[in-house]
Design brief:
Layout: E1 12-17, E2 31-32, E3 35-36, E4 50-54, H1 55-72, H2 90-99, E5 101-106, H3 115-133, H4 136-148, H5 156-165, H6 176-183
Antiparallel strand pairs: 1-4, 1-5, 2-3
Helix pairs in contact: 1-2, 5-6
């Protein structure tokens, strides 16, 4: 549906019900924009079956079903040749069409999303994808590496300064890693 919708039906949701005694197939017009619409059976919308659809799709299906049902009831002469009598008026078509639809509710118009918000959503999507693909063991190593440097000790001198500040006895000849263990 269009983002700049002005038609009040653009966000309506309806229930389309086949109230005829025959299956409504794509060959009979059970399609929208050349795409078939199926019910639970997967091949048609069976007699008595209902499908929840956007208004514009349901409305077209209802119109096509109304025409199909009126064609089936068309009068014929004795030899099976159509009589040429008009099958429906616009009013009778609209009445039959409306009988196949039940209004359910209207959805809210989607909020406008800026290009920046769209890009940031993509960033989050890709981040989630990467988190999903990176093995857990690699993440564990990354966390352990971050823990070693999380206190902000850039070099051995920073560790010694912290040990002196906390008044912890230490051997200055030991490595930075060994001195950091004293701080834990």
């Amino acid at each position: 549906m269009s983002e700049n919708a002005t038609n009040p039906n653009d966000y309506r949701v309806v229930t389309f019900t086949n109230k005829t005694d025959f299956a409504f197939t794509p060959e009979l017009g059970c399609m929208y924009d050349s795409r078939p619409i199926f019910g639970k059976s997967g091949a048609s919308v069976e007699s008595g079956e209902s499908v929840v659809l956007p208004f514009h799709v349901g409305n077209l299906l209802a119109k096509n079903l109304a025409k199909a049902s009126m064609n089936r009831a068309a009068p014929e002469d004795a030899k099976g040749i159509p009589t040429g009598v008009s099958l429906w008026s616009e009013e009778s078509l609209q009445i039959r069409q409306a009988s196949y639809l039940t209004k359910m509710y209207s959805e809210d118009k989607p909020a406008q999303i800026s290009e920046t918000d769209k890009l940031m959503a993509k960033v989050e999507e890709y981040k989630a994808l990467v988190d999903k693909l990176i093995p857990v063991e690699h993440k564990k190593e990354e966390v352990e590496t971050n823990l070693e440097t999380s206190d902000g000790y850039k070099d051995k001198a920073d560790v010694i300064a912290e040990l002196e500040k906390r008044q912890i006895k230490f051997d200055a000849r030991k490595s930075k890693a060994d001195l950091e263990k004293l701080l834990v």
